[in-house]
Amino acid sequence: MDSLLEQIERGTLWQFPGGVHPPQQKSLSNQQPTARLPLPDKLVLPLKQHIGANGQLLVKEGDKVLKGQPLTKPTANWSLPVHASTSGEITAIKPLPSAHPSALPELSIVIAPDGNDTWCELNPVSNLHELSHKTLIDILHNAGIAGMGGAGFPTYIKADSHQPIEFLIVNGVECEPYITADDLLMREHAKEIVQGIEVMQQLLKPQRILIGIEDNKPEAIAAMQQASTHNTKILVRPIPTKYPSGGEKQLIRVLTSKEVPSAGIPADIGVLVQNVGTLFAISEAIYKGKPLIERVVTVTGNTIGKPQNVWALIGTEIKHLLDCQGFTPVSEQRVVMGGPMMGFTLPTVRIPVVKTTNCILAPDNQELAEPGDEKACIRCSACADACPQTLLPQQLQWFAKSKDYDKLEAYNLFDCIECGACSYVCPSEIPLVQYYRVAKAEIREQKLDQIKAERAKERFEARKERLEREQQERQNKHKRSTSRAAKPDAEKAKVADALTRVKQKQGDKSAVQAAIERAKAKKAADGSLEPDNSEVALERARRKEQARQYKEQKHSEDTAVNENSNESSSKKDAVAAAIARAKAKKAAQQAEQQSEPPQHAQASDSDAPKAGDDPRKAAVAAAIARAKAKKATQQAEQQSEPPQHAQASDSGVPKADDDPRKAAVAAAIARAKAKKAAQQAEQQSEPPQHAQVSDSGVPKADDDPRKAAVAAAIARAKAKKAAQAEQQSEPPQHAQASDSGVPKTDDDPRKAAVAAAIARAKAKKAAQQAEQQSEPQTEPAPQSEDKSDSEPQTPEQKRQAAIKAAVAKAKAKKQAKEQEGNDPS
Amino acid sequence: MTLFYALIALGSLALVFGLILGFAAVKYRVESNPIVDQVDAILPQTQCGQCGYPGCRPYAEAIANGDEINKCPPGGEATVKKLADLMGVEPKPLAGGEQAEPVKTVAYIREDECIGCTKCIQACPVDAIVGATRQMHTVIDDECTGCDLCVEPCPVDCIDMLPVEQTKQTWKWQLDAIAVKQID
Amino acid sequence: MKLSMASSPHNHNHKNLSRLMLTVIAACIPGIIAQCYFFGFGVIVQLLLALITASLSEALMLSIRKRPVWPALSDGSAWLTAVLLAISIPPLAPWWVIVIGTVFAIAMVKQLYGGLGFNLFNPAMAAYVLLLISFPVQMTSWTPVTSLLAQPLSLADQVTLIFFEYSANHQDLLSAMTSVDGTTMATPLDTLKTAVSQNFTVTEAMMGEQFTAFAGIGWMWVNLAFLVGGLFLLKAKVINWHIPVALLGTLAFCSAIGFIIAPGSHAGSLFHLLSGGTMLGAFFIATDPVSASTTNRGRLIYGACIGLLVYLIRNYGGYPDAVAFAVLIMNMAVPLIDHYTQPRTYGHGVAK
Q1: Which of A53, A665, C184, C276 could be A76's S-S partner, Cβ–Cβ 3.0 to 4.6 Å?
Q2: How many CA atoms does the CB half-sphere of C68 hold within 13 Å?
């Protein structure tokens, strides 16, 4: 028995099972030499055109770039740079439809060519043999070379194989019908391809290099044989034409009789496969210093006037290719990227050529008829006979239809290479491959979910353990009654703990390790003050259920502001409400005189949660709110009922201007209070009463205008919502509430804005006074919190806040102008 | 008399087979996971507590003790079906009649509005929120189970539950659902 | 411009279901011609009856099941079942035999199991067995070869016999089947079985005028005609070689052994291969994709088991022929066979 090497030397070929013989249609496009396209008017370069991570952007919008200049920098593992395919200006960097079956947007760089096609500086290599392994790998990496046969696997990783490579296989098979890109490349650039092969030879030192070419490409075979005569290690092997002999696994089987283990890679059996296009790109990168910026693309199909191969710059839109070759679409036109067996249809022609695009096929409806309706499977097993992977497609199909994922895996679904041979032969025209793809995607997702659930469980249990331990420690501490103030320690530890956790999560995601880390941190802290949460969670869950039950009423109940009011009798409330209304009316009249509608509207429209604890953000939010207010003013024209909270909000808003941070804090507190009140109010299910409650809260608000104002604003916003949700209960009250949010008067937004500014200044003064007065006010808890928050404020911060506020005001003014411009009146 | 023989014969046969069965049951017993573990493995581990139990494990225990299997909204109908298979009961619609297919969400903290109260951190069952007192908090979305538990405690309502966006990796070949604007 | 989306592959070999079914029906034509030649035109009448009944019952069942009628009907599978059943039963069997059989095949065996692709059993054979055990007389009343008939049957005779069970020249079916020597004749397999059971040797039994040197007159040619049709199907790649080869090979092998051991009581291989429904069964019945094994190794086992069962039942069973029984029995074993004969997937079982 001869050794494998001897058999291969003698030219023995092996068979792979299955396979089909679809009509070749190659002569359509391989009669003309490869053409060069005119420069397109824009290039779209997706950051990710390969398997692996994105590179990091090196350019920004408006940058001028030269041809061949890197646009991204490889960062993590498996990331490749992309290069400018021509010189020009970067007009946009945004997500655009990608060359993927889903066409989901991918971050892309758009270049407007300047027409000069100026190259950046290139560094060709002449002394290949003197270069170190690492230098060569780096050149391949930085040239952005990815497998050009289809998958787009980064070439530098393959070339840097740590496993010994016995056979380097050069894939020039091109078994897909229609495609002739590799055929033409081999005919026209055999010398360069062999150069590329020799680069790989130096890197990998294989025993033999086998060039597999289907025997339907005699010219290419001759060219490659001629170009490789000087190298005795290179063997050109014509192989019988059968689809999918160009599949990596099938080609390895045909040329070496070996089989790639399931879920393994060819390097596991000492084989490495490279596409001829990739090898050409390697040669260009080494000997000319050119990165991968163009490739041969077959443009073919019966709707193409001049089907042929073209050199297309990476990033050229398909539309440009089609236009240049004369495209006359038919109805129900399909445009396929790739071949008829494995290519995918494009939803739009505004999709760029990427590194893996080998063919654009635009067939008419006769040459590649749309498949008929799916019929019943008759279990004829024609699919199994055609399957090059010896799977049982028919069984897989049943399992895929019944979503029996365990069975699918037992029947080796993941060994399916999606070559389409089974669908091609299926007499019932079942889209088998489509079923497998969907099932694969489902299974992958389920597995991810499983992993995630597993991790969540671990984290949950680790946390529970931690909380228990903490409680234990706390109890111990109480027993010992150590007065050592552990608080700062604990706090610090908590932060450290959180930081460790973040790091943990960023680094490796091993939850176990995270738990250990956390445990360590906790030990160091000697206990923490975090409460046991499981009970709280339970209670919360219960409350949530309640919340769901009270869903409808919830909104209206939110209006409750003051806890005390809950207990007050409705009669008292009614009186209070009446007083409040009267006051509000008065306040409204004053407000009218002051013509400060934007401020009111701001309070009501800015919808409490928008105001944050950050002073700058508060200012910005205020500006936005003002813009909104203007709109509200216009709407408010016809509404006459004055808001009872007007006064309150007047005093509240200047406050925000005066000291935005304080105001924001106050707002937050107010919101918290409102929420708490609302939750309590939830239990009571009488909407009218709550409406009154919200009113009766108002007089109180006068005591502490600042706080109450904000609270009132929220309450009003909520009431408004509630009014919409529940108009039938207590209409007058709600009407009032909803009206209150939108003060009327001035219909000229600009005037309103100016007036608002004046009013703000006035209110500022008033608020300052109010603040002084409010210092010794009644409600102690929030007050003290307020104080504690405002205390650490330095003059510097104040100044900053003031500047921000000013900027925001300017912006608001601008907005107001715009608003005016937009306003038809 | 014949009847008597028949009874004896049948009785002894029954005895023999019973012994064989009993022996086999002891000898070839398959050590399977306790039912709680199996139930727990089916539950989605969001630890959301929507079932009324503090976490998935307690609910698994409750199911093993005979509680209803339809109290897990994050798992959706699929989980109910699997549980029904496992427990040998009829699948029933989800309690509360919520949507059958749960939409996967992650929590997102509007960071400008966060006041740093740590309430959500304490609520998170899987420690997926980081932050410290008076510092802005944020959610590690990889770890977030979308349980909603942090939304309620937030005093300033700055936490949103956002649906998880579809990516190429999670795309499921819905060819007919591709929505790309036709430019020309 | 609106582009249409489709899943790859975007090409198809244009061999669709109805073409497949019609090819199989076409491959039956040589056999049908041979049957007509040797047994008269009754088979044509049976074919027509079966086709009409099959179409009607398929349409009815589909509409009851609320499925689109025409797509399922036009795939030709019901017609193929009808053809296979019609050429399996005696040509002069009364009309209601074929009607009952076809309705049973389509409505019960096929549609009630979920329609094409879901039937566990071969519909034609299940119906055949139903008819055989329900109407044994009618189902075993094969007329002698026309050349041996006492009174030749005209087409009109045959039609009236089928529809009214008597004709101008014959009081009933039995008299129509009377042969030249005045005895009613059974099929060669039947004759042989009876002879052997009466302690005649096979050689003696085959001295009769309905036998040639190898097998029964007429039956031999009918089988050869089906062989031709089967070879055509193989050539057209409609069926795989595994089942017919395994079936015929096993049958030939077993009968050869039997013949060597006890030539007196066991007929030779050629007799078995060219008698009864052997060729029809091997190429047209056992290869029915829906109810046969789906893996290549499984098909070999499936075919071989049918061959063995046919031989056993023919020699030791109560019925003269056995293709239908053997196929039905093996239909039941298919899931098991399939489960244990999964091929090795590429890349599995190789050292990593």
Answers
A1: A53
A2: 9
CB B102 within 8 A of CB B147: no
- Tokens 């236009």 found at: A323
**Selection from B167, A421, A364, A432 nearest residue C4 by Cα:** A364
B158 annotated binding-site participant: no
Task: Determine how β-strand A167-171 pairs with β-strand A208-214.
Answer: parallel
Nearest to A341 by CA among A481, A178, A225: A178
**Nearest-CA neighbor of B133 among C109, C284, A530, A341?**
A530
Residues C281 and C328: their CA atoms lie apart, in Å, by: 12
**Quick check: C283 and C226 in contact, CB under 8 A?**
yes
Tokens of B155: 């005093």
Same domain membership, residue C288 and residue C156: no
Q: Hey, where are the domains in chain B?
A: 35-97, 103-167
Taking the CA of residue A613 and the nearest CA in chain B, the distance in Å comes to 6
Q: Name the superfamily (CATH) of residues B35-97.
A: Electron transport complex subunit B, putative Fe-S cluster (1.10.15.40)
Q: Tens digit of pLDDT for each residue in C109-160?
A: 999 998 888 999 999 999 999 999 999 888 887 777 777 776 677 777 788 8
Residues C176 and C321 placed together within one structural domain of the fold = no
**H/E/C letters for each residue in C35-80?**
HHHHHCCHHHHHHHHHHHHHHHHHHHHHHHCCCCHHHHHHCCHHHH
List per-block mean pLDDT (blocks of 10 residues) for chain B, which spans 184 residues. Answer: 91 95 86 79 83 85 86 82 85 69 83 87 88 87 85 88 82 67 44
Q: How far is it, in rounded angstroms, from Cα B100 to Cα B102?
A: 6
Helices C77-88 and C123-134 meet at what angle, rounded to 10? 40
Q: Which of A264, A338, A375 comes nearest C75 by C-beta?
A: A375
Residues 252-291 in A contacting C (C-alpha not used; CB under 8 Å): 253, 258-264, 268-269
Summarised one tens digit per residue, pLDDT across range A300-330 is: 999 999 999 999 999 999 999 999 999 998 8
A417 CB contacts (<8 Å, ≥6 apart)? A244, A247, A249, A388, A389
CA-nearest residue to C6 within chain B is B175
As given in the structure block, the two tokens for residue A407 are 């069975």
Chains with ≥3 Cβ pairs under 8 A against C? A, B
C268 and C150 share a domain?
Answer: no
Tokens of C33: 């011609």
Residue bearing tokens 């160009």: A246
CA separation for the pair A646, C346 (Å, rounded): 78
What ipTM was predicted for this assembly? 0.89
Residue A380 marked ligand-binding? yes
* DSSP single-letter state for residue A301: S
Chain A nearest C-alpha distance from B65 (Å): 19
A777 touches A703 (CB < 8 A): yes
- Cβ neighbours of A786 in B, within 8 Å: none
CA A512/CA A496 separation, integer angstroms: 18
User: Both C217 and C335 in a single domain?
Assistant: yes
C-alpha span between A789 and A98 (Å, rounded):
50
Q: Please, what's the b/e burial string for A272-310 (b: 16 or more CB within 10 A of its CB; e: otherwise)?
A: bbbbbbbbbbbbbbbbebbbbbbbbbbbbbbbbeebbbb
CA angle C125, C243, C87 (to 5 degrees): 35
